[in-house]
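Bench log, entry 3. Co-assembly request; chain sequences pasted below exactly as received.
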Amino acid sequence: MSEQYEVNFFKPLSDHAKANKKLIVILATVWFVGVFGFQFLLLLLNQPTPEKSYEKFQAVYPAVVEDAAATPEMKTEFAKSLLHVLGKNVALKDNHKVVLQNSLTWTLESMQPDSVKPVYNVEPNEELFNKAATDLNLQNSGFDKIMIDLLPTSLVKLDKANFPEEYKSELPAIMELYLVHNQNFFTDFIFLGFPFHYWYTAQFLLILFVVLCIIYAVSIEKANIKHNFVEET
Amino acid sequence: MKNLSKYLFSITTLLLFSQNLIAQSATELEGEFKLGPAIILIILLCTFVMVGLFNRAKDTSDYWAAGRKISPVGAGMAIASNWMSAASFLGMAAIMYGAGYHGLSYVVGWTGGYVLLLILMAGQIRRYGKYTAADFIGDRFYSKGLRGLGAGLAIFISFSYCVGQFAGIGLMFKWILGIDYTWAVLIGASVVLTYTLISGMLGVTKNMQIQYVIIIISFMIPMFILCYKFGYFFWLPQVGYGAVVADIVNGIAPGAGITAMGHDFAILPSPEFAMPWDPATGQTAFQWLAICFSLMIGTAGLPHVIQRFYVVPRARDARWSVVWGLFFICILYWSAPVYSAFGKVLSSNPEIGKLAKDAIVVYTAQLGDIFPLIVGFLAAGAVSAAFSTVSGLLVAGASAFSHDLYYKVINPNANEQTQMLMARIGTILMAAAVAIVALLNLGLIAQLVAVAFSLAGCTIFPLFLLGIWWSGSNRAGAWAGLIAGSTVSIVALVYFVAGKFGAVLPGGEFVNYYMNAWYFAIWGAPLAIITNIVVSKLSKDSTPVEIKKFLAKQVHNYKVED
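Structure output for the full assembly:
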């Protein structure tokens, strides 16, 4: 007879407890799959997807760091890709920023005739920023304007004779870190203005949680009435 | 009523007066005393105290029973107010601002846990009928030692929870008063302590409803303005900001507006803000899942959350108060990403420098060139959110100290006066200790609060889960499970603190990644549950028949022969 008061979720002893267990299992499953299933799906579908700047960087990087083979257009593309990453202000780590700033300034310097090069060995000024904008052929509109605005915080005084080898070797990994992203169908599909995966996690899951709670509160009351379950004694 | 009208008239006059005085430079993000926000903050705090005075609890039972007089909607608002802290108001946007999609694990984790709480515990806890988490643990596992340990854990969890809140209060006081962080934390701690000692026994539930309304309104107004100002769908900013996220991914060309600092509202393509587990954020899918899981089970194990179900009149009300509470919480959680998205664009120009992430909500409003008084109201809302949570936690921690530890374990003969004195001493000691830890700047607000959730998930949650749903879980199992969960917690915290102070412990990198202080419950909770089950099965100890009968009859309504 002692089994009549053994409480075990998996072995409910009354019809009401059985109904409650069934309800909990269904809701917990929906909850679990809704939250974690979708994240696993994202994980499964994710593909490393480069931004255009990264593709351009990869195309010109070998030539630019070797210098001899690089054309001014290549260096311009290279510098713009560096500026693009420097524009990721919030995400950028300080040590990466130093590498990018120096690489950008070295690239611009390498585009100058020898007589002009010394201006890069002093603190950058307004004149240099304007010159850099002209050298990079940046227009005063669109994303180019953002890049022009980035120049004052992106150019630095060069204090070494050559483009340091460690900066050259660190660059590819830094550029890959900031310019290659996990993307898939769900991240590219727009829903209510959002990338779908973002909407799903930031908005839909919360709606789902509220709905699951309402379903439980309503269902358990119905089960209470059906099975004559008196909650308050 | 006459007094209240006079008070409201004074508030209006003061606000109009301050409006002239706050014609300060909107481009100054930090560094100066801001009169308008300071006046709003003082008015809000005075309002809370006065509402408390008008709804003063006559005695202890009235204080606890306050929740029994209000509807589930009102109780839901109280749950939401109690829940929405500096971590919700400031911390979530901060994490999303810095780590993009990774931050959504906090949004999901801090809401999804309510589903577990509702379907597994709310009604059952109400039917069990104890007053505190320690009461339940001590009674269900028939152990005075476990009761004491439960009370100690409740205090420690409240303590950890408070650290993040004090950091938030410090940041907002720093912003309002224009002083450095250390002084801001000390002044903020003194104000919140005074506030708690004055309002601790006042009309708490009524106050919580008012606090909820103020917190939500202060959070919402700037969102509408930001969306309107920069050309996004502003009737429902929670939907309107979706286009901001998509635009951040693809880049925003200049032309949509100008920030308070004179920069374009523009950004180069930045998919790292929205893409899942972007390498640039340094966060992985494992960390996302681990944080989400830990916060969810922590929600269902937090003593001050569980305790709210003891004081509702009926189990049905306990359930519906969770439903309403979650809905009210979600209103804020649907909104928090708005600030991170606008903040990302508005602070994208490197000339702005690196902003303190935890204050990004307020900085975003400032950079959006929103009227300073509204920004001040927003900052005051953040302080209110932290105050409402901290005062509740300090009261809960102090009552655990005086009632569960001092009276029930140390000195059962203590009279009510001595207990009250111990509660006051406990409140002061706890506030002082929390302020000291907050000064160490150990992490972001949301991360610091996440520690409390992992602690609760590793210790309290397994005891409640098994205590309610399996009468075979006995004292030996409870002890073993608690020791297992606590060991994981201690290891994670020791490695974390050692790392912060530069000490290198064996396997430090491994532990700090897989068992980080923000999400160690992903291992600790399952381990505690499994240990509890295995030891309960193996031990000769058995749950007393009276407790089994009580559980079956009272909590699960089985037909039990006496």
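Chain B has 22 helices and no strands. Chain B touches chain A through 90 residues (CB under 8 Å).
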